[in-house]
């Protein structure tokens, strides 16, 4: 009985890299180009990618988000295990990878106070909104209102990008003290909105 030929792992690694560099790789053609068995290449490519997808989703579930750079490093580490001198994947590989796996998508992440995050109990919020729905079920939309407020200080500026003829850092003066202005806004569920209501600093102290 003839012995099966030994698979060249370095060629398989290069073939996997070539397949992963494409949005819709033709596994059959790549297997022929690199002289590796089709079934071996097909299995390796899909197993590697599914492992990466599972890893990303698991890390997200434990609140450790994976950035494109981290995902790229993880993929490169997989290829380096089988071929030490493999060329690293390009930055575009991550975006092609996400296009192949629709359950992964880029999203922005903003810093947020951990106390606010801890207070966001999904179960409690769902219960609250279910209760609100029961209370307002028979109330006309024009009688359901919501209001919000925001405060700002007109004399205080913020960092921004400007067009300048020099590379010297520019500064803008801001007032040492500025009063606070509060704005109230009210909107009805049917789309009606009240003009903003501004609250300025009082002129005469109020008595109890």
From TrEMBL:
<dbReference type="Pfam" id="PF03221">
    <property type="entry name" value="HTH_Tnp_Tc5"/>
</dbReference>
<dbReference type="InterPro" id="IPR006600">
    <property type="entry name" value="HTH_CenpB_DNA-bd_dom"/>
</dbReference>
<protein>
    <submittedName>
        <fullName>Transcriptional regulator family: Centromere protein B DNA-binding region</fullName>
    </submittedName>
</protein>
<dbReference type="InterPro" id="IPR009057">
    <property type="entry name" value="Homeodomain-like_sf"/>
</dbReference>
<dbReference type="GO" id="GO:0003677">
    <property type="term" value="F:DNA binding"/>
</dbReference>
<feature type="domain" description="HTH CENPB-type">
    <location>
        <begin position="36"/>
        <end position="107"/>
    </location>
</feature>
<keyword id="KW-0238">DNA-binding</keyword>
